[in-house]
């Protein structure tokens, strides 16, 4: 079952894998495929004119402005390991300041020291942060003595909000944990599934009978904290995409087709599975990795398996808009001595968070300039993600005026929208993904990758692409008869 590309028909050449989607998941899958097997050829098909998907950096006038992610979590090793293979590990850059603020009742309060996985663990710093009332502090302090949920007592799947309120109290959730944890998904903690978003918190309660005891034990015995908890690159996250692209091109075995969406997918025939592209051409291969947003995968899979397409469409997605603004540093009347601030839902502001980009990472703005990035929309205020540019810019300027006292006009403004781009791991997510994987196992020449299944962060997406590559290689090694599971 060997085939050639562009409809030239089957031949006995080297195995050919079609990777649909040129975001970080698809590029990681392609890199894994060509690295693992020197015979494999890969064609990457990407709908837009550039690779990287949500990962992308605008570099202009001396500014480095992220369109999507600005950092990766250092504790997840997938990014560093990939960078080492790509020869760009020396380009990894830590944050230049530590800590952040949380907005509370008209002022910014420093996040307390002793956060572990963004959860407070120490009473003293929490008390001096003045984020919680005395009553809220006492409730937090009582956590180790609260009974752990009996297995299954909180239902098969508990919400993030339900869990943290049950363990640490309403105030600790509303004023501190909610903006930190739900912000990653731009989601609603009452709907996000604990087991799908932060399974480690559930395990800590089960193993230690208390979240605080578990977090403290993990901090005492776990791996030492990395020098910087977050990593990026001197000229932005796009460096990761560029490193991957160079590595793929160097092999001479990867064809990259940008600017042309895949429109249809055909199950294996004489010439293996085939993709029809929007320009009317088709490509045949021996196996397919769909590294796409869930709905785009659903559209391609619907004619082959309507149930898997239905389950893929059932994963809700949220939208966000970011507004990046540059100011003369002299126009900013307060010290930018942190990575930025987050805004709890209960504060009822329009912005979700504000990153002080030029403080967070070196080299983001020319000397004498300050660069901010504000986040809008998400589950909290979905309508703001589709507001026009002028409206978003006005909201961003109001936020900076009211919170930081910035009244000057910005020197530069960039608006980026990500519509339906952020999967929401809501209650029942793990079950939905298990059903998708079980159905997809019936299409053994196919593997799914992307941010919709087992993690939305860049390191999770890299692992997802690598997992999909492993499944496809297993299929190629075993031949057409042996099934492999479908989703990474
Ligand atoms: C604003 C924002 C900030 C974020 N910040 C962080 C952060 O700081 N750290 C972090 O770790 N993560 C962050 N994330 C999450 C992370 O960036 C994403 O989850 C990840 O980049 C998704 O990668 P992906 O390859 O799975 O999907 P995508 O990047 O969505 O790639 C999918 C690709 O498929 C293409 N495509 C779609 N349909 C077709 C088709 N029919 N044919 C061919 N191609 C198609 C798309 O054009 C796209 O390029 C952020 C996300 C957003 C939106």
From TrEMBL:
Described function: Involved in coproporphyrin-dependent heme b biosynthesis. Catalyzes the oxidation of coproporphyrinogen III to coproporphyrin III.
GO CC field: cytoplasm
NCBIfam families linked to this entry: proto_IX_ox
A single BP term in Gene Ontology: heme biosynthetic process
GO MF terms, alphabetically ordered: oxygen-dependent protoporphyrinogen oxidase activity
Protein name according to UniProt: Coproporphyrinogen III oxidase
The protein's Enzyme Commission number: 1.3.3.15
Reactions catalysed: coproporphyrinogen III + 3 O2 = coproporphyrin III + 3 H2O2
Amine oxidase domain sequence ranges: 24-473
Signal peptide positions (record): none
Needed cofactors: FAD
Lineage: superkingdom: Bacteria
Family: Belongs to the protoporphyrinogen/coproporphyrinogen oxidase family. Coproporphyrinogen III oxidase subfamily.
Compartment(s) of residence: Cytoplasm
Pathway(s) this gene product operates in, as recorded in its UniProt entry: Porphyrin-containing compound metabolism; protoheme biosynthesis
Swiss-Prot/TrEMBL keywords: Cytoplasm, FAD, Flavoprotein, Heme biosynthesis, Oxidoreductase
Keyword Flavoprotein appears in the UniProt entry: yes
């Amino acid at each position: 079952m060997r085939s050639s590309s562009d409809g030239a028909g089957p031949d006995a050449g080297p195995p050919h894998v079609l990777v649909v989607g040129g975001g970080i998941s698809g590029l990681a899958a392609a890199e894994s495929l060509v690295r693992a097997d020197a015979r494999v050829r890969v064609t990457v098909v990407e709908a837009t004119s550039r690779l990287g998907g949500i990962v992308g950096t605008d570099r202009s006038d001396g500014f480095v402005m992220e369109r999507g992610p600005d950092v990766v979590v250092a504790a997840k090793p997938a990014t560093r390991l990939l960078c080492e293979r790509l020869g760009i590990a020396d380009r990894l850059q830590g944050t230049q300041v530590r800590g952040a603020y949380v907005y509370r009742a008209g002022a910014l309060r420093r996040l307390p020291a002793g956060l572990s996985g963004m959860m407070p663990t120490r009473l003293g710093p929490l008390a001096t942060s003045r984020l919680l009332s005395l009553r809220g502090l006492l409730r937090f302090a009582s956590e180790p003595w609260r009974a752990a949920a009996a297995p299954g007592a909180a239902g098969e799947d508990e919400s993030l909000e339900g869990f943290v309120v049950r363990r640490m109290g309403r105030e600790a959730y509303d004023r501190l944990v909610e903006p930190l944890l739900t912000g990653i998904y731009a989601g609603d903690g009452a709907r996000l599934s604990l087991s799908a978003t932060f399974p480690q918190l559930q395990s800590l309660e089960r193993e230690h009978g208390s979240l605080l005891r578990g977090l403290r034990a993990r901090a005492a015995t776990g791996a030492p904290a990395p020098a910087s908890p977050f990593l990026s690159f001197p000229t932005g996250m796009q460096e990761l995409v560029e490193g991957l692209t160079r590595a793929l091109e160097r092999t001479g075995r990867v064809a990259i087709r940008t600017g042309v969406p895949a429109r249809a997918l055909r199950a294996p025939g004489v010439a293996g599975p085939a993709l029809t592209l929007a320009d009317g051409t088709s490509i045949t291969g021996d196996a397919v990795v769909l590294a796409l947003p869930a709905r785009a995968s659903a559209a391609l899979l619907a004619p082959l398996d309507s149930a898997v397409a239905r389950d893929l469409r059932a994963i809700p997605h949220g939208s966000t808009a970011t507004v990046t603004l540059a100011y003369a540093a002299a126009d900013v009347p307060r010290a930018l001595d942190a990575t930025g601030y987050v805004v709890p839902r209960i504060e009822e502001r329009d912005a979700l968070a504000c990153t002080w980009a030029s403080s967070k990472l070196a080299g983001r703005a020319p000397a004498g300039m300050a660069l901010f990035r504000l986040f809008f929309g998400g589950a909290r205020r979905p309508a703001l993600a589709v507001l026009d540019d002028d409206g978003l810019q006005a909201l961003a300027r109001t936020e900076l005026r009211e919170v930081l006292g910035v009244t000057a006009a910005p020197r530069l403004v960039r608006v980026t929208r990500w519509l339906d781009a952020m999967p929401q791991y809501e209650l029942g997510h793990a079950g939905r993904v298990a059903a998708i994987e079980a159905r997809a196992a019936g299409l053994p020449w196919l593997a799914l990758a992307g941010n919709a299944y087992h993690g939305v962060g860049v390191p999770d997406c890299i692992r997802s692409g690598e997992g999909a590559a492993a499944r496809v290689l297993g299929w190629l090694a075993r031949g057409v008869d042996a099934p492999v599971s479908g989703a990474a």
